[in-house]
Specification:
Number of helices: 4
Shape: globular
Mean pLDDT: 81
Strand order of the largest sheet: 3-2-1-10-7-6-5-4
Structural class: mainly beta
């Protein structure tokens, strides 16, 4: 339950006490939060890449229906109050440091700029549209991209191959040998809108790029892949 709720929330401000060193940024304001963020670290690898958007009118959006359980957000007495779609309110704590949002469940204490009493967290980064457009051209995607993560007691290996002629393949394999599958389709990418569209799966498989570096990219559907060298 915690993983689903925590991953679908997004920010808050950090509580303080006599141990606070002041080296961490505290007292997060609405101006700090407004915009779109993507999850770069999470206890669940399937959530990495999912975006949360804090709108100026207090509404909240999520790129994944699975984790999008909230509809509104507000700051109150140094805390982030998230209102669920059923009307229930939940309070969270977070730390803004080095341009990243570190999210925690419950109250936190900070000492020398580090959280000392929280065991679980999410890390979010702002979606940098200019940087993505500078890196992720259509030619950038041509090649083989892989992703490996742990599912329970086994590892799952995913591979997507984008060919220059517009074809693509996608495969899933596990070290247990079960659940292996492969798909073929076509792909197209619009650098201006950051939209990747494919015909993988019967209803298509489409997402928006939220992060891109030389050898790694993330999509808002909860996907992050590394270039195979």
């Amino acid at each position: 339950m915690f993983a689903i709720v925590f991953a679908s929330i997004c920010v808050v401000s950090c509580s303080s006490d006599d141990e606070d060193s002041g080296s961490a940024e505290q007292g997060i304001t609405a101006k700090d939060l407004i915009g779109t963020w993507w999850i770069s670290k999470s206890s669940s690898s399937s959530q990495i890449g999912v975006t949360q958007t804090y709108n100026g009118d207090g509404t909240w959006e999520c790129s994944s229906d699975i984790y999008g359980v909230y509809k509104n957000w507000e700051l109150s007495e140094g805390k982030l109050i998230m209102t669920r779609k059923d009307g229930r309110k939940e309070t969270y704590s977070a730390l803004l440091k080095d341009g990243r949002l570190y999210l925690y469940f419950g109250d936190i204490k900070v000492k020398d700029g580090e959280v000392v009493n929280a065991s679980e967290s999410e890390v979010l980064e702002r979606v940098d549209v200019a940087k993505i457009k500078a890196v992720a051209t259509k030619d950038y995607f041509v090649g083989t991209w892989t992703r490996t993560f742990v599912r329970g007691t086994y590892k799952e290996y995913r591979k997507i191959v984008f060919l220059s002629n517009g074809d693509c393949t996608y495969s899933v394999n596990t070290d247990s040998g079960s659940g292996n599958s492969s798909y073929i389709g076509t792909w197209e990418y619009n650098p201006e809108t950051r939209e990747m569209k494919t015909t993988i799966y019967s209803n298509g498989w489409n997402w928006k790029i939220v992060y891109a570096s030389k050898d790694e990219w993330a999509g808002d559907y909860g996907l992050i892949f590394q270039r195979e060298k």
